[in-house]
Write a structure and sequence with these properties.
Rossmann fold; binds NADP nicotinamide-adenine-dinucleotide phosphate; single chain; 7 strands; 45% helix; seven-stranded parallel beta sheet; alpha/beta
Length: 251
């Protein structure tokens, strides 16, 4: 590559903050990044034994904490702790989210507010805080937002949830423009995969999703993780994109 291009490149992330890293996809991302030698900070409201175990196995490369992403003060304090323990953050994976299992007409005002606060407002605030600090230190970085095919296709019972994921897809595109190539911002939109969040789906719904999926199986977190890793670590010119990982179920 030419010297000019080299100077413009965003280097691979070295210290990555993963929200909701205690279980499900978030835990799979944390495990993978640690396996690749990165430093990883992860939080959730509850630190699970699995996350504790990773922290004990990699004491110099992991920082974990019990933080509610909607608590702005606590999230910001966690970021500062991470910087002290692991160094400046140059990658963020906005993965923490709450699901929904209620028809819109039956969802309370508080329920809608909680979904929007957790899945949309909080990641926007956390991203703003981390990016400000990256820029203050003269760093470049990477953002990966975990969204969902629900942002692109309709699903009953997921109206507010889908709205937040569509909001994050839209924010991803505008972040990519606004950050001017100093930070690569992308989203990964998985299809349904087995987790605590999707446990509300009944067998009939799962069978229907599988029938509609050309690859013939539900997405596995392990099939999403390499895409997240690529966006954080590989030298690509991918920016402002939403990458769907769903076996073409939504096509
Ligand atoms: N499962 C699916 O079928 C599916 C499909 C498409 C996209 N996704 C997306 O993939 C991501 C991971 O989902 P998942 O299925 O792995 O869900 P999950 O198993 O329910 O895990 C969600 C994670 O987020 C954390 N979290 C939730 N609320 C939080 C809060 N207020 N503060 C801090 N952490 C919080 C949870 O920990 P605590 O509860 O202890 O806080 C947990 O670590 C989400 O963004 C989800 O929307 C999931």
């Amino acid at each position: 590559m030419s010297d000019l291009v080299d100077a413009q490149l965003v280097p691979p992330a070295t210290v990555v903050l993963v929200s909701g890293g205690s279980r499900g996809l978030g835990l799979a991302i944390v495990t993978d990044l640690l396996g690749r030698g990165l430093k990883v900070a992860a939080f959730a409201r509850t630190v699970t034994p699995e996350l504790e175990k990773l922290a004990a196995e990699h004491p110099d490369r992991v920082h974990v904490g019990s933080v509610d992403v909607t608590d702005q003060q606590a999230s910001q304090a966690f970021v500062k702790e991470v910087e002290q323990r692991l160094g400046p953050i140059d990658g963020i994976v906005n993965n923490a989210a709450v699901g929904q299992d209620s028809l819109h007409v039956h969802t309370s005002t508080d329920g809608i507010a909680r979904i929007i606060e957790t899945n949309l407002t909080a990641p926007l605030q956390l991203t703003r805080f981390v990016v400000r600090r990256m820029f203050a230190k003269g760093l470049k970085g990477r953002i990966v937002n975990i969204t969902s095919i629900c942002a692109q296709r309709g699903f009953p019972g997921l109206v507010a949830y889908s709205a937040t994921k569509g909001g994050m897809d839209a924010a991803t595109r505008s972040l990519a423009r606004e950050l001017g190539g100093r930070v690569l911002a992308n989203a990964v939109a998985p299809g349904f995969f087995a987790s605590e969040m999707s446990a509300v789906l009944g067998q009939t719904q799962l069978d229907q999703i599988v029938r509609r999926t050309p690859t013939g199986h539900l997405t596995e977190p392990e099939e999403v993780v390499p895409v997240v890793r690529m966006l954080l670590c590989e030298q690509t010119n991918i920016n402002g994109q939403v990458i769907v990982v769903d076996g073409a179920a939504s096509i």
